[in-house]
Amino acid sequence: MPQYKAPLRDMRFLLNEVFDFEGHFKSLPNGEEASPDMVDAILEGCATFCEEVLAPLNLPGDLEGCTLKDGEVTTPKGFKEAYAEYVAGGWQGLSHPKEYGGQELPMSLNLLKAEMMGTANWSFTMYPGLSLGCMNTVFQFGSTEQKATYMPPLVSGEWTGTMCLTEPQCGTDLGQVKTKAEPQPDGSFKLTGTKIFISSGEHDLAENIIHIVLARLPDAPKGTRGISLFIVPKFLVNKDGSVGERNAVRAGALEHKMGIRASATCVMNFDGATGYMIAEPNKGLEAMFTFMNTARIGTAVQGLAHAELSYQGSLPYAKERRSMRALSGKKDADHPNDALIWHADVRRMLLTQRAVAEGARAMIYEAAKLADHMVAGVATGDQAKYEAYDDKLGFYTPILKGFITEMGLECANLGMQVFGGHGYIKEHGMEQIARDARIATLYEGTTGIQALDLLGRKTLLQSRGKCIFNFTNEMIALAKPHLLDGDAVGAMARASFKRALEWKWITVKIMLRANKDRDVVSAACYDFLMYAGFAMMGHFWLKQAIVAKQKLAQGGKESKEFYTAKLQTAEFFFERLAPRANAHKKTMLSSTRSIMQMDNEHFSFV
Fold first, then answer.
1. Which residues are tagged catalytic?
2. I need a surface site. Which of 193, 360, 368, 504 has the fewest CB within 10 A?
3. Model confidence at 291, in pLDDT bands (50, 70, 90)?
4. Rounded (10°) CA dihedral 593, 599, 600, 604
C-alpha cells in the first residue's frame, strides 16, 4: 500500500514563495498568531499525525469497514484511538473562535490540515470533517444559548456533527424534502422522517452527535421556500451541558458503498425526535448554503488527495518494477530489463498525476485565501465583505469541486494502470484509491450540478459573464509581462494569454446562443466546466513557473533541482494536458441537435 509522506516541500513553496501567506495572514483580524513558526509547527505536527497514525489505518479500515448492530455503529479497529489522539491534539478547533475553546487561526490552515489528513486516510477524515458544517451553521445562525450549549464540545471534538439534508425521493432537489417538524408547547419540535447518505450519522468515536436537519413546518410553503433548519442531538443535552437521555433518532441502515468503506454512511430515522429550530422559519436552505462554498472546497481537496496519494504509490513502484528495455536503449546496464519509469508512456501517467496534484494544490490555496477573508467578514460582522468574498469564492468552487475531483479520479485510475494487474489487487492499495475517489464527483453536488452552477447560475444569470471576465483579466495580467520571453515560461505565458481571450469569446458566444436555445446551457455546461478547469489550472501553473524561474536565477528556499522540476512539470501540463481544453471548446459550441433530437422512446429497442 502507498506509504503516505506529507508533501511539505511543495506546500511550503506555495505558502511562502508563490502566495505569500505570511503577508496574507497579517491582513486578517485573526491572522496575528499565524506566524511562520506557528504555521511550520502546525504543518510538522499534522504531518507526523497523518503519517504515523492515520495512514497505517487506511487499508485495514477499508478491509474491515463499519458494522451496525441494534442502531449502533462500530468503526474499524484503531479509529477510536486515533480520534482520541486527534481530539487531544486540539486539531478540531484549529480555526474556530477562542470563546468556544478553539485557536481562532485562519480557515486556510484548516484546509492544509484537511489535505494531509484526507490524503492519509479519507474515511477517517470524514468523521471530524462533517462536524465543520454543523459548527459553522450553529456559529452563524444559532442563538446565544445554542452556541453556548453546542459549540464548545463540537470545537473540542468531544462531540461531532452532521448535516442531514437529502431523502430517498429527492437527492439534490431539496425542494422535495418531506421530513416534518411539529411545534411543541415548550418551543421545541418533534421531527419525523428519513434521511439518507448521512456521513458520520452514527459512530462510536464521540459521546454525542449533533445533527443539523432540514424539515418542514406544518404550514410551510411548498418547495425550497418552505424548509426550516433544526438542531437534533443524538443525546439530549442537560441544562448543565452534560449528555442526557437518548433522542428518537437512530441509524436504520449502513450504506454498502463502493469506497470510503471505513466511513459510516447512514440511513437516519427520525421518529418524533426532539429538535430545536436554528435560523428563521422557512429559511433553512438559505442558512445551510451559507458555508456551502467552503464545504465544496473540502470536497475539491479530496480530488487533490487522491491524485497525490496515487502518485505517491505509483512513483516508487515505477522506479522499482522492471519490464523490457526502454525504446531509446538500455538504461539499467546491471539488470536484464529497465525500470518502468524509463518508458515514456509510464512517465506520461506519472507526470499527469504530479501536474494535477500540484496544480490543484495551487488552485485550492488561492481559494483558501478567499475563504479566509469571507470568514473574517462573518466574524467581524462585515456583511459587505462577507458577500464580496463569498461571490469570488462562489466562482472558484464549482470549478474546484467539479474539475479537480474528475481529474483526481483520472489520476487514481492512472495509479492502478502503472501497477498493471497488481493495481487491481487489494493488498497494494491502489484500487482502494480509485474506489474512494469515485464518490468525490458525486456528493456535494455531482459534476453536472457543479457545471450547471458555473455556467447557468454564476456566469449567465448572476453575473452575465462578469465572473469569467474578471478571472480572465487576472490571467492576462499575469501572462502579459512574459509574452516576449524566449524561454519555456514565455511559451506558457502566450498560451495562457490566448486561452484567456478565447474564454471571454466563448462565454459571450454561449450567452448569445442561450438566448435562443435554453438547452445550450445544459448541453454545454460539462465541457464549459472542464475547459474552465484546464484554463484555471494553466494560470496557476504559470504562476508557479514564473516563481520557479525567478528562484533559479536569484536563489530561493529550495534546491535548484526542485525549481527545475517545477518548470518541467509546468511544461508538461501546457504541452500534454492543457490542449484538452480545445476538445471541450469544440464540443460545447456544437449544436444541441445531436443531443436533443432522439425521441425518448427510441433510446432503447429491447
1. 444
2. 504
3. low
4. -110
